[in-house]
């Protein structure tokens, strides 16, 4: 990874994203550090998923500067896709494929079959941790929303990416799935990855992350420590930012 001069794996300056007449993101600034988890918090339509899609190299910025793992997302989206692990907010799973087939394909695309120890033991461990071991060979068409979310997190973390992007990973997920996701975030932080978690759930955002950036109407309205956004005082502060 070629880190930019100030060393931050995620740098966003004055990001704007427009879809026709819709201004989805209207000036987001963000810096996220290696070895830390940062939350993007905001209500529905705040611009969180669009920002995450830009960071994943999936949607190009309309304007602004976005550097992920040392790569400019506009100039080199393929290098960005290689460097990140991305759990999209919706979609991403093939209904006729099983979790194991998803993992096999992901490992092959990432050339993980050449690494030691083999990817398959890690894949099996992750499926067990996320309680998907029993359905490893069942097509995902019949999966509940929460099961799909858990598999999307497993796929994002499989290759131990430098930048982990989890968009609404807790949405509709039961407490055991939430616990497994929290553990996966902790593991990624501990090995020095930069983690970004997008969510509308303040309490889980402050549990998972040390820094919280609040988006409203496509723009950043605040960046605070998780402590400042915790408890009743944090809830009041958050409500104040949304009014
Ligand atoms: N492909 C698109 N075409 C048109 N408008 C879009 C598109 N994607 C997002 N938008 C609009 O951009 C705005 C921001 O959407 P975005 O999905 O980024 O918000 P969000 O904070 O992730 O919301 P949620 O929590 O509901 O997922 C919304 O008004 C949305 O309707």
TrEMBL record:
InterPro entries: AAA+_ATPase (IPR003593), ABC_transporter-like_ATP-bd (IPR003439), P-loop_NTPase (IPR027417). Residues 10-242 form the ABC transporter domain. GO terms for molecular function: ATP binding. It comes from the Bacteria. SUPFAM superfamilies: P-loop containing nucleoside triphosphate hydrolases. Keywords: ATP-binding, Nucleotide-binding, Transport. The keyword Nucleus does not apply. Belongs to the ABC transporter superfamily. PANTHER family: ABC TRANSPORTER, ATP-BINDING PROTEIN (PTHR43335). This is ABC transporter ATP-binding protein. It comes from Nocardioides abyssi.
